[in-house]
Amino acid sequence: MTDTWLIVGLGNPGPEYSRNRHNVGQMVLDELAARVGGNFKIHKARAQVLEGRLGIGGPRLVLAKPVTYMNVSGGPVAALARFYDVDPSRVVAVHDEIDIPFNTVKLKIGGGEGGHNGLRDMSKALATKDYLRVRVGVGRPPGRMDTADYVLHDFAPAEKKELPFLIDEAADAVELLIRDGLTAAQQRFHPAKV
To answer: Which residues pair with 9 in a beta bridge?
Structure first.
């Protein structure tokens, strides 16, 4: 296995989805791409890919945005993991999370998918749930709004003002996770219980 990290931003393809809550993972990947420098190129694994390093002499990163729909993200992720010889323990899924409040970033390894079909498909394709996740809080749907409708809508006007800060923070979380490990990243991004 290599020292490469595969960072996957989950979302749906096409401009009609690009600003949806469900695509916040891909928004974070765009921020990471700006930090690494370079442009995404289409890869045969059905993903847009950018290879780079985390800082000068830092770990090698493969930033990937599947060009399939969210619910079938697993195939491209597993194909990229094989192509770049990346162990699932070095795969990081960046995704929207309704079970944590908007403007919150949390990290974990493994566990359930919480009804997130993109994660479910990744777990199936990688044959393990033991990959890292950077969970970007989008909050719960208001009232009785259907969850699928909620995540396929753009952020509310008040949220849009805060969104650049949330994306920046999630990108920081990915970098810290890779540089210093999961525990250090959790200590930085998970508020202490009072």
So the answer is: 94
The reply to whether 116 belongs to the active site is no
Q: What is the pLDDT of residue 128?
A: 97
CA triplet 9, 69, 7: central angle to 5 degrees? 15
Outline where DSSP puts E strands in the chain: 5-9, 41-43, 47-53, 60-66, 91-97, 105-109, 132-137
Series of mean pLDDT values for 10-residue runs along the chain (194 residues)? 89 96 97 95 97 89 97 97 97 96 96 90 97 97 92 95 97 96 94 64
- Coil vs helix vs strand at 88: helix
From 96, 86, 133, 103, select the one nearest 19 (Cα to Cα): 96
| Active-site residue, selected from the candidate residues 22, 43, 95, 116 | 22
Task: Write down all domains in the chain, each with its CATH number in brackets.
Answer: 5-189 (3.40.50.1470)
Closest alpha carbon to 32 in 179, 149, 144: 179
Tell me which residue of 176, 90, 185, 188 sits closest to 132, measured CA to CA.
90
Which amino acid would we find at residue 177? L
